[in-house]
Amino acid sequence: MPVSKAQQRATAKYMKETLDDIKVRVKKGERDKIKAFAESRGKSLNSYIIDLIYQDMENAGHPLE
Q1: CA contacts within 13 A on the Cβ side of 31
Q2: Which of 11, 26, 45, 46 is the most buried (most CB within 10 A)?
Q3: Spatial separation of the C-alpha atoms in residues 35 and 47, rounded to whole Å
Q4: How confident is the model at residue 1 (pLDDT cuts 50, 70, 90)?
Q5: H helices of the chain, where?
Q6: pLDDT tens by residue, 4-36
Q7: How many whole angstroms separate alpha carbon 30 and alpha carbon 36?
């Protein structure tokens, strides 16, 4: 079932108000390899990267919370 234009606008508004974007650049072809590895761990590419950042910050003694 296609998503309505109203739902698309609501989703875009929610994301704009509650989330920040961080762009990560990798060499051509590496994105697919990283994504496949993340999926093999049961995670999306986004959640895999976020989890790594949070884990590294916690290990360094600077947890976000």
Answers
A1: 7
A2: 45
A3: 10
A4: confident
A5: 5-18, 30-40, 45-59
A6: 999 999 999 999 999 999 999 999 999 999 999
A7: 10
User: Which of 8, 65, 29, 33 has its CA nearest to residue 57?
Assistant: 65
Q: Which residue has the tokens 């739902």?
A: 7
Residue with tokens 């360094």: 60
Q: Which pTM value belongs to this model?
A: 0.79
Count CA atoms closer than 13 A to 61's CA, side-chain side: 0
Distance of alpha carbon 55 from alpha carbon 5, whole angstroms: 38
Please give the structure tokens belonging to residue 39.
């999926």
The Cα–Cα gap between 38 and 24 comes to 15
